[in-house]
Specification:
The chain is mainly alpha-helical. It is built from twelve helices and no strands.
């Protein structure tokens, strides 16, 4: 009876996550209705809260897939509650990704859940556990871009459309960057089970620095331009114009001076 109760509590949705979800809903409503006196603040809170929700779902996908693959320890660690405070590196998992968004409009997630890989048999399962997170970002991006590629924007306020476009950009960048085969990122985690033991041992010391290496590389103007060129092309195929993501980012950065070009729809 005690074990069953413990297992149930291990999977109960955390009030922390529900609170973040509530902030997303309220600020999304404020952005839609224009209730906020300063729309930029509402957009900032809406995008930030929604981004944290996507980070929680990203890590939940890793944990849930690991659970069904054989690692039952993820439940006792609290990973199935969607509580970001249970992550192994709360700073890397929540704070740092939000800072990345503020600094450069880049959806760069950090490592969070610790999977006991020794409990999981088979290389395909290990690869699937690593792929589950960024695939969640892909799904989130599809949801965010659906109103655009379904041509269902009639009646959608400009500020909300811009915020949704910027949130879609974050999800697309997160999916692309996560799938890079760089140690410490999920893309390498997908490939790692198929590498030789010797190669894995040689690469292992670089894993803690993979995320920072990618972020530093994106500060190189040529790399940044090429990367966002790919992102903008993908978003364009989904019906989102670069103007909309630009205005979403400008509204998000409510503390900065803007030219007013985003005050009306294109």
């Amino acid at each position: 009876m005690t074990t069953a109760a413990a297992r149930h509590s291990d999977r109960r949705i955390s009030p922390v996550f529900l609170g973040i979800l509530a902030v997303t809903a309220v600020t999304g409503w404020a952005t839609w209705t224009g209730f906020a006196e300063q729309p930029g603040i509402a957009v900032f809170l809406f995008v930030t809260a929604a981004w944290i929700v996507s980070l929680c779902l990203h890590e939940y996908a890793h944990a849930r897939t690991a659970l069904h693959s054989g690692d039952i320890s993820v439940g006792t660690k609290g990973y199935l509650t969607l509580n970001p405070m249970k992550y192994t590196h709360a700073l890397l998992s929540i704070v740092l990704p939000v800072v990345f968004v503020i600094m450069g409009g880049i959806g760069l997630p950090g490592g969070a859940v610790f999977i006991e890989r020794g409990r999981i048999p088979g290389r395909w399962r290990h690869s699937l556990v690593s792929a589950a997170g960024p695939l969640t970002n892909v799904l989130f991006a599809i949801v965010c871009t659906a109103p655009f590629w379904l041509d269902a924007l009639d009646g959608v306020p400009a500020d909300f459309r811009f915020a949704l476009a910027f949130l879609a950009l974050l999800q697309v960048t997160a999916a692309i960057l996560n799938f890079l085969p760089v140690p410490g990122l999920d893309g390498y985690g997908v490939l790692e089970p198929w590498l030789s033991h010797q190669v894995r041992r040689q690469v292992e010391p670089f894993a803690p620095f993979g995320l920072l290496f990618v972020f530093a590389l994106l500060w190189v103007p040529e790399v940044n331009a090429a990367f966002f060129g790919v992102v903008d092309s993908l978003l364009a195929t989904l019906g989102i114009h670069e103007f909309e993501t630009y205005c979403g980012y400008e509204l998000f950065r409510f503390w900065s001076d803007t030219s007013g070009v985003c005050s009306v729809s294109p």
